[in-house]
Amino acid sequence: MGHYLRLEVRRTLRDTGFVIGGIVMPVMMYLLFTNLGGGDDTGWRTAGMVGMAAYGAVGSALNTGGAVAEDRAVGWLRQLRVTPMTPREVVTGRALTGAVTVLPAIVAVLAAGGLVNGVRLRLWQWAALALLLWLGSVPFTLLGLGNGYRLTGPATGVANMVCNLGLAVLGGLWFPVALFPGWLRSVSAWTPTNRFAGLGVSVADGHAPALGAVLVLVAWVMAFGAYAVLSYRRGARTF
């Protein structure tokens, strides 16, 4: 499975669309949003860095599902079935690919925050921030896999785009949740993206993530994991 993982990671990182959409765009959006008007609000630049790093990680994680749908269309998954790899190893390999390919998006936005926008954190905060955003992206990888195994290629692309934009806006990755009306803030608190970004915000503020945020994310991991497994079982009948 190690060879398969290296193959999939190389294929993903060589995809121009992935590089532009998953890495370049979050960096450009972060720098644009936080420098409009020439302000020097360090707190907003730090919060924006966390939110946009989370947004880039979500998009990269969901992209894993798009690659799965493409593999189904060209018959790559049928070819994998004749190899010694078990279905569990194939799914695990794809999940690990998603876990690896979210790192460039996270690191790129954090680097833009520190090198361009002058965000200053302690060394342990930078390390913990990157680690928590990496680990917290797991539910979105599972969501992308579920879409990829269940839907056609074009449908997966649309579903992932809707999930990415919808969860980003609703979770407060683009705009502060404080700007939302009360009822929408209550809904946002239960979204995986809001709690995902909350992990990073807590570290940037110098304290450990809230237990509630961790528990909500664990619940979403279980929900999206079940969705991915059910989708794979259903999709296995067609490839």
Please characterize this protein's 3D structure:
- The chain has helices spanning 2-13, 16-35, 42-74, 76-81, 87-101, 103-115, 123-136, 138-150, 153-170, 182-188, 192-204, 211-235.
- With 239 residues, the chain is an all-alpha fold.
- Helix 1 (2-13) crosses helix 5 and helix 7 (123-136) packs antiparallel against helix 11.
- It has one domain (2-235).
- Helix content is 79%, strand content 0%.
- It has 12 helices and no strands.
What keyword list fits this structure?
single chain; mainly alpha; 12 helices
Please give a quick description of this structure.
This protein has 239 residues and is an all-alpha fold. It is built from twelve helices and no strands. It has one domain (2-235).
